[in-house]
Amino acid sequence: MLRVVTELVGSGEHVTAVVNPASRHFERIGELGAQVMGVRVVSESVLRRAGIDSADGKPSTARALVLLDADDVHNVHTALTARDMDPDLKIVIQMVNPRLGGQLHNLLGDCVVIAGPSLAAPAFVADALEDDELTWFEVGGRRLVAGPAALIRTPHLTVLADTTSSATPELLPAGSSDPAGDIVVGTGLRKVLRTRDVRRAGWLMATRDVMDRRVRVIAAVMAGLILTGTALTHWIAHVEWLRALYLAAGAVTSAGIEDNTFSDAKPWAKIAAVVVQLTGIVLMALLTAVIVDSLIGARLSRVIGGVRGRPRNHVVVCGLGTVGGRVLEILVERGVAVVGVERDDDAPGVQTAHRLRIPVVIGDSSNEETLRSAGVQRAQAVLAITNGDITNLESAMVVRELNPDARITLRMFDHDLAQRVERQLGLGHSRSVSMLVAPAIAAAVANRRSQSTVPAGRRVVLLTEVTVERDSVAVGRRLGELDEAGGLRVLARQDRDGWDWEPAFDRAVAPGTRLAVAGTRSGLARLLLATRAPHRSGPSGRMDP
C-alpha cells in the first residue's frame, strides 16, 4: 500500500488510505500527505466515511476505490459492497488468483484487475537470464508477451515488425491476413525441450532417506536374531535349514510359529522360543515407530520432490509464493532448468512446482546446507524472492560465498536498503514487487494510458489502450478505418461483454469504446487526436499535454 499511496500522491491525487493501525507503514503513509483512517475491518460504514456513497442520486465524493488486501476474498467482498453503494464507482483491485480475477467483470461490471505476480515475475526472470528480447505487458484484459517469433507460442495475435526484409525494420506490416514478420505478440512462450533438466529425487531416493540409521540398526538386530534362531532351531530341534529359517523369521517378525514343532522340546527351548517371539514383537514395534516418525518428520512429498544428482547451470528460485510460482512457470516455458527452495511446503509455488515436476528443497533459504542441497554452487543464477528482505539478503550473502559467479537478484521492499545493498555489498540487482505494480495501479486510477514499448531494431512499437470520447471524429466510423498501414493496428475492442479479440472491423465505433492498439508514435498520436473530444485539442489541432 505504501508504494501505491506514494505513486498516487505524487500524481496529485487526494488519497484517503484505510489502514490497519498495526501496520508498520501506518505512520509513513500519513507522512506522505494522505488522509489516514485506522481501522481493522473494512465495513460499509467505513467506506461511507471514506466518501463512497451515492445516496439520493448524488455521486460519491470518491471517484475510485483501490483494493490491495492480500486476501482475494476480502477484496471481492469489499468491492461488492462498494458496488452496491455506488454502481458507477471506479474500482481497481489487485488479485492473486488470476482465474478469479478474470471473472470479476461478471460480478463488478466496470473494474480494473491488477495481477501483481503476473506483472512482477517477468522482471525477475529477465534479470536471471539477462534477457532483453522479450517484453511482457497487459493490454485488452490479457497478459501478453512480445518478442522474436521463434520464442512466442503460436498462434500469434499479431505481427509487430519485420526486421529481416531490409536494413530498416518494417513496422506493422500489412498485406495478407497473416503478414510475415519476426517480432510478434502472443499469449505465452513456446515450450522448449529442456536438455539440461534437473531431476527430482523420486521414490528410490525417498526410500533411502526414510531408511535412516535408526531403521538400519533395528533391521540389523532383527536379522542377527533371525540367523541365531535359525541355527539354534536347526541344531536343537533337528529341523532342516529352510524350515528353521521360516520358523525363526516368523517368530521374530511376529508372524507366529507352529506349536507342534516344539511340542516335544525341552522346557528351556520352549522358553527361549517365547523370548525370541517377544523380542521380535518389541523390535517390530520399534521399526514401525521409526519409519512413521521419518515419514512424518520429512513429509514424503518433500523427500520425493528433492534434487537428484548434481545439477549445473540451472536457476535457483528461493521463495515459492505467488510470485515465485509464476517465475517457475515462465522459466519452464523458456526451457530453463530450475530448482525451487521454500520453507513452507504448503506454499502455492510448491504446488506449482509439483505440477511442473520441478525439484523443491524444503528449508530455510538463508541456510547454507539448504542452498547446497539446491546446488547453488553450480547454478548460473539465483533469485531470492521470499517475502522477507532480511531473509533475501542473508540468502544472497551465502550464495555469493558459495558461488561468486552466480547472477543474484533480490526481492526487497525497503528502497533505501536495496540501494545501499547494491552499492556497497555488490550482491546483484534488487527489485520490489510493489514498485513494479504501483505505477500500473496509479495509471488505472487516474485513467491514464499505460503503454508498453517493444523494440524492433532501432525503432519501437507502442502497445496501449485508448478510449473513444463523445463527439470525437472517430465516433461513427468503421473500426477498420482506424487501422493505418505501417502506423496503427487495432487489436481488440471492449464492449459490455468484455474484451473482444476478434472484433468485427465493419462495425461503427461508439462513444466510450475502449480499443487495444499497436502503433508507431506518430500513428498513435493521430489516433489520440481522432478519439478525443474537440475541447481536448488546442487551437492548432495539437493535443493538449
TrEMBL record:
PROSITE patterns: RCK_C, RCK_N. Keywords: Membrane, Transmembrane, Transmembrane helix. The chain crosses the membrane at residues 217-237, 271-292. SUPFAM superfamilies: NAD(P)-binding Rossmann-fold domains, TrkA C-terminal domain-like, Voltage-gated potassium channels. It comes from the Bacteria. The keyword Transport does not apply. One of its GO terms (biological process) is potassium ion transport. Residues 312-435 form the RCK N-terminal domain. This is Trk K+ transport system NAD-binding subunit.
